[in-house]
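Example with several molecule types.
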Amino acid sequence: MSLVTHRSYTGYPMVADAEVAPGMQFLYGSGEAAALDHQAYNTLVDAVRRRLASEKADPKAMSDRTSAVLTPDATLDQPETLPCGDRPRAVVFDVDETLLLNLGFEYDDATHPGAPYDEAHWLQWEQAGVDRVAAVPGAIAAVNELRTMGVTVVFNTNRSAANAAFTEAALDHAGLGPAKHGETLWLKGDLGSGSGKDSRRQAIAARYCVVAMGGDQLGDFSDLFTGTPQQRRAAVSSPAIRGMWGRFWFVLPNPVYGTALKGGLDDVFPADKRWTPAAGDK
Amino acid sequence: MSLVTHRSYTGYPMVADAEVAPGMQFLYGSGEAAALDHQAYNTLVDAVRRRLASEKADPKAMSDRTSAVLTPDATLDQPETLPCGDRPRAVVFDVDETLLLNLGFEYDDATHPGAPYDEAHWLQWEQAGVDRVAAVPGAIAAVNELRTMGVTVVFNTNRSAANAAFTEAALDHAGLGPAKHGETLWLKGDLGSGSGKDSRRQAIAARYCVVAMGGDQLGDFSDLFTGTPQQRRAAVSSPAIRGMWGRFWFVLPNPVYGTALKGGLDDVFPADKRWTPAAGDK
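Resulting structure tokens for the full complex:
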């Protein structure tokens, strides 16, 4: 970690009675977010259970079923999915703010208002946070139920490959393991990938029939979701894609960080929907 | 509207290039929130379709099925649900940030940073905003599919009874109507209720078998969710309640306002999960 990084952080002294940002109140402190979490995990497990039951009832049709992973040449207009064949069934999950809540790291962020994101602190946290993460509500039960059904749980995260052993330990400590790097744990840098996850998804899909995926960022489902906030929003709702949500792709809420937190007034509020109250009293 | 209210608002001049708060970027501008919306609506419609199919396959069992509405003497530890009998099927939805996005009102909020919530402005908005709301992604298709299945769509909202005609018009304009006050639209003040919704839910459940409910606040499901943030969070995840989410109760994300946005550091970050980076360089 460079001295510059350290200096820039210490410019933001710890505030022990800091106000908690609304996004953190929501994600880490609210019943509403916990309800969204349980909803995502209940519906994911129910969908996988129904699929396995229908495959058991009609084994010949099993090899015709498709994966939740898009083909390498899929587009958002033509989101073709990979064939499954008779590969063993798996569910692919992102890790951070999908299965794990990074409470310690976010506490540090909350108590240093204004401090920018610091990659070196994050890498330190991947090591130090092993026992200061918590499972997302509903995640432990879901992972256990999937494994009981014979479904392999695979983790595809942008945590660093250099810290693989710490992430394996964090998942174990939270009650979500086992995770084994190169088998059921895929990290940033694996396969020469950057933060894009498609190449890792293809490698996972070569071994498994991926019956569902879970994540808090659109990139946890496909790297194709790019562009402006309104373009990403339109793609999610397009006729070709909208049927995936809650059936093959399961979203966890995260208003604290990530690709969702972009945009100025023109990106967020359509011109024809603006309003200000009448100037005088009513 | 009092002069005081007007004065307090004009103390916060409009800022045309205001930064958009992260919660608003998430809810009104992100693909991730749209994906959560579609997920909630897809899974709600799928659950209702499966239930109706199983009732059709076994009509004798239909009267044994229960409602998504708790009994008047239910507790969170013993959340008994009402019997359905042969009442017509309905789904009960909250309105604001469940079916409708209040883009105009929130634009005004975004461009007046620091201004407190102003009830008089909100009441003005209920009238003026009829054509400046938008349907939540997935809501129109869901409402249409439910009606096609023969399920009545009922609205239970804390908009004011005095503005009933404007809310009926707003729902129509957004493509979600019809809504008729006293029949399929229930408002704050109906039945002498305050903002609690249980008395209205009981009245709805006396006429209908409520097969699912949708909302963005825990109070859209039961008035029993009270207490501190951690108490509410624990209740949502309790063994008696956690199975409701995504099966009978369907949650839409809202990190912009409401009961989820409470709590200081002690409410949001458990004492044993806190962390700060090492003081020196790594």
